[in-house]
Amino acid sequence: MNFKTTYLLFAMLGVLLLAVGLMRWLGPSPVDPAYIMDDLQKAKEAGADYVFNTKDPQSPYYVKDLKQAIADVTHGALADRAIVPTSANEAFEQAIDITGNAAILVHFGLPNTDDVIHVPALATHTMDKEIRFSWLAPLAWPTAIRMIAEGLVDLEGFVSSTVPLEETGKAIRHLRERANDPVKVQVAP
């Protein structure tokens, strides 16, 4: 990992906490992961150098123009990498817009059957961007599991609550409704 590389992650908190841990461990020097998500303070606590909120003007992390904010922290270069582990097309299309020359973008996850991603062909070609698609990323799991087992990634912020097995249905409903701002719910037998 190059210490000058700027990584952008568009995802929910659980994925982001794991990703920032992986980035911090892999990089010989700090990287600049920027997070676009709901719980930005947890991302900062996990080690994100920059966080941005484009939806809530009351947020201390609010930026009106994300592309300009990224340009400001990268001295105009924009981001070198973007990882979008969400099926939100808007997030991926925005990632295309805020990545720079020779950027690599990864669209991770399973989109809906009727999803269409719009790519500005000329700009993407002339900036020599590479787009990768991955559904399950089977080769990533052994590395992630090993890093977790060896304590290389801090998982403290992952579990927001623990419920007994008989409350699994209720916990799933709370996750879907975003009740009490859940990250991950652990089910105990």
From TrEMBL:
Alcohol dehydrogenase-like C-terminal domain location? 38-149
Highest taxon listed in the record's lineage? Bacteria
Q: Which GO terms describe its molecular function?
A: oxidoreductase activity
Q: Where do transmembrane segments lie in this chain?
A: 7-27
Provide the leader sequence positions.
Answer: none
Q: Extract the Gene3D superfamilies matched here.
A: Medium-chain alcohol dehydrogenases, catalytic domain (3.90.180.10), NAD(P)-binding Rossmann-like Domain (3.40.50.720)
Keywords (alphabetical) are:
Membrane, Oxidoreductase, Transmembrane, Transmembrane helix
> Do the record's keywords include Metal-binding?
no
Q: Known InterPro entries for this protein?
A: ADH-like_C, NAD(P)-bd_dom_sf, Zn_alcohol_dh
Q: What is this protein called?
A: Alcohol dehydrogenase-like C-terminal domain-containing protein
What organism does the record attribute this protein to? Gracilinema caldarium
